[in-house]
Structures are given as C-alpha cells and as structure tokens.
Amino acid sequence: MDTIKTEIYTILEDAIRAAVAAGELAISEVPTIPFSPTKTPEHGDIATPIALGLAKQARMAPRNIAEIIRKHIDADTLERINSDTHPIIRDIEIAGAGFINIHLSDNYLYDTLQTIAAMQAAYGTSDKGAGKRVQIEFVSANPTGPLNIVSGRAAAVGDTLVNLLNATGYAAIREFYVNDAGGQVERLGESIDVRYRQLLGEEGLEIPEGGYQGEYLTEFAQTIVETEGDSHLQLQESERVALFRDKGIAHILSQQRVSLERFKVNFDVWASEQAIRDSGKPEEIIQAFREKSYLYEAEGATWFRMSDFGDDKDCVVIRQNGEYTYFVPDAAYHRDKFDRGFSTVIDLFGPDHQGHISRLKNFVKALGLPDDWLEISIIQQVNLVDAEGNRLDMSKRRGQFFTLDALIDDLAENVGEEFAVDVARYFFLMRANNTHLDFNMELALTHASENPVFYIQYAHARCCSIFEQGTEHGIVAKPIEEVSLKRLTEPIEHELIRKLAEFPSIVHLSAETREAHRVPHYLHELSGIFHPYYNQHRVLDSEDLEKTYARLILVQSVQTVLKNGLTLLGISAPEAM
Length: 577
Known about the structure:
Elements lengths: L1 H20 L14 E2 L8 E3 L1 H9 L3 H10 L3 H8 L6 E7 L3 E6 L1 H14 L13 E5 L11 H19 L3 E8 L4 H17 L15 H14 L8 H26 L6 E4 H6 L2 H11 L3 E4 L2 E4 L10 E4 L8 H13 L4 E6 L6 H11 L7 E5 L3 E4 L9 H4 L5 H12 L1 H13 L7 E4 H4 L7 H21 L18 H23 L4 H19 L8 H24 L9
Helix pairs in contact: 1-3, 2-3, 5-19, 6-16, 6-19, 7-8, 7-9, 11-12, 12-13, 15-16, 18-20, 18-21, 19-20, 19-21, 20-21
C-alpha cells in the first residue's frame, strides 16, 4: 500500500505542476498531498482532500481545482485508466466538495495476496528503522511491593512497542530500571524490621511514616523468622535494617520477575540505581552542571537552575544532609543510556510521574544531548469497572491495591489459564496509553465472542477449522501460482483484501507514533469483516473447486495476518476454541 500511495502521489503531484505550468492553477508551491482511506468501497480505496487544501491559495472552488488536477494527469496514465489496463488505478473520480477518490485495480488486490503468500510470518515487517538502536524503559516499579495493574498496562504497552519497532527494522530492547537505592528502600528495610520484631513478640512497634503496610511484608518477615529465627536481633538496628532492605529488594524483585514472565514480558536489561550511584556517574553529572554554572548554593542545599530552561522554579539536587535527590541518579542513568549508543530512548512513566517529565528533559538538555533523543509517555491510570462502568473496590480482598497477579488469577478462574494473559494484555492495549483505561471486568471474564480478544482469536480458529474440514473432505489448498484469484469476485472478498493490504502500514504507523492500540483495533476490524464472510459464503465447494482454491488463498491470508498481529501483541493465536 505504501508503494501504491507513493506512485499515486507522484501522479497527482505531476498533474498539479502541469496545471500550474499551464496557468490554470495559481499557487506558489505544491504542498504535501494527504491521503486517507475512504469510508465505503463505493467511494474508492484512497481519497485525498488536496483540492480543498489548495482552495484558499488558488482562490478557486475546490471541486474546480480537483477537475483541473484530473485533467492534467498524464495522457498515457489517463488512457490506461479509462481502458482499464493501468496496473494500479482503475478510476479517479471527483466527489462532494472536491475530494479526489482513487479506485484501485483488481491487480493490486491480487498482488496483496501474492505478497502475503510469499512473506508469510514476515508480512507486515519492514526495514524502515535501518537498524537504529532504541531503548524502551518501562514498568521500573519500585522493588517495595507486588506489581499493580498500572504496571501491567505499562508492561503490555512497552513490550508491544518493542515488538513493533523490531518488526519495522529497529534494534529495540526492553529495560527495567530498579530503584534499589534511596529513601523508599530504606523505609522498606525499616518496615520489614518492624514486622520481624513483632513476630518475635516485641510490642509497641509501628510502621514508620512513609513505610509499607502490606500483608506481603508480614508474610516475608514470617519466612525470615521460620528459616533464620531470632538471630538478627543481635545486630545493631542500622545493620538489621540494611540486611532486611537487601533481603526485601531481592525477594520482591524476584517476585516481580516471575509476575512479568507469567505476563509474557522478558526484559533484556535490568539496570540498577545502586550500580549507577556506585559507578561515580552522579558525581560526574554534578561536576558537569557546576562547570556550566547550572548549580548554586542556597539554604544549605545545592540547587539546579531549572528556571534557565523555562521552568517556574529551581530544584534541589543535593540536600542539606549531602544526599542526592532522585533527579541526579536519574540524569546519570540517562547519560549512561546515551553512552551505550542508543539513537532514541523512550521512557514509559506512570501517572504519578507527570511532573517529572519536563525536569528530566531539562536535565538531559543540560547534559548537551539532542532534544529529540528522549521521548517520554505517560501510561495512565487503570480502573477496574463492572458492566455499568462502576469502579470496583478491590481493597477488601487484596489490600491497598489490586495486583497484576491477582488480575490474572481472576481471569484464569473464568477463561482458563491459557487465555488469562491474552485477555489482560488485549484489554490493557485496546486504548491509547495516554488516556485512562476502564478495564471492564465482566466483559474480560466472558469466554465468548463478546469479549474482543476472543472475537479475534475465534476468527483465527475459524480459518484453521476451514483447512481441517477441507482435509477431511479431500480438499487441500493449492500453491497460489496455480490458483485463479480472479474467482474472488464478491464485494466482501475485495473488502477483506483491502483490509489485509493495510496491515504493513498499520504496523509501521503504530511503531512510529508509539501507539500500540492501533494494532488491536485493526485486528478487531479485520475480524469484523471475516466473521460475516465466514457465515455468508461457502469456502469449501466441491462443485466449484476453482473458486474453492481461490477462497482458500484468501482465508490463508486472513489467518496469516491475524496471527502476525496477535504475535506483535504478545497474544496467542489458537487453532481451535
């Protein structure tokens, strides 16, 4: 489709230039020609509103401009279109206020099926990324508790974006940044220490302010008591807290890894904040900022001149006690990413990090890194809701938050373990990540075609069932070279092929815009065409084998695209359901 659009673009651009040269169109320059899919096949396959865009500059009615453009299309091209011998274009018509609608020839439809048959699992991929190295940092939850459902959404989005980028020729990796240093993990150690001492009978203890109350820490402290007894009471409190901090980080991080692996997300790199601090990079960052006069002393602390970069106030980078604020190791970590040779770095942050975006970008700018090197997106809040949209209160069963594991467990009880992750990933991906997501639990727990992920998987399984039925009746698909594709004459068959032709563009656009939700939307639309086709038309017809072979090629193509798309989403493509 991209190749076709390029050729049509050239035809229209040449026509506009010819109209200008003939003095029939008074414009100073030819603008970019936009394209969009048409709403119905009757209006063609591709439309452009270029005539409407030129109206003000040309001081002419858009429809008149469109007619002039069509008149100046190369004579040979027009003759071949009118005689139906053009390899791509069947007709160019003017519609409405001045839209130019292009009807593509059937040859383009058949070429699409040829391409899918030749590329198979590679259909939809490209080399447009030219091997550029991209790092996506996502989830990066503090190692202080189980992963929640917002982390699950970030995991689904980040993992899919890496798949999309790699499918379009980039060399993208997944990275998890472990915040294993600083105040939050110190409070983790203190919280475990309190639970440990309580279990050994010490009274009058309370979790420190800002500590962690979850039952999971009591359970972890219990395992320490059961395996190591009261031996740690002999340590100084600071030593004991440090010990429990390290034990807690290792334990929780191990649980997070298991949860992510269950969710079909495997990170290429697990980076450590403590390792960044130990490397001396934060000191190098501070020195670089001092040399550029970005720092000053006030109120016993060291401040960064954030206002020099348009922020409304400066920020502290070294506290009065000499400790770095989290900005410094963050800046050092991003410098480390740059030093590792990534041409683009993408951070997926949770909704509570909105205010951190501009400051982190300013630090990156202060380090002299390219403005477009760092991209940051917010993965918005997830609300579990019922069928009426009422928010579900999960705190009574699960504690202070609903974990990713708890969600998958609930799904597994209703739709089966083999589909639980598929459902969760699809629902996390079905909305743009910068919008709040209402996760409809009743719909997600439904093991039927009303559930959108099953609607797509059923389409794939139906494709597989057709070939199984064919084998039972002695009908086996022929190689595409031996099949007359012209037997595909039904309008819905052409509609299916047009939708199949869009897939590579959808993959590329999803990767370039970092909008993973485009793929599940596309797969649902493709399934929405295939299901009626399956119900209304016989694919296997022993009395018309030529048509049967052509339709089997079409079904094979649908099956291939559905599987390729589901694979990009990290979702299975079952052969039977």
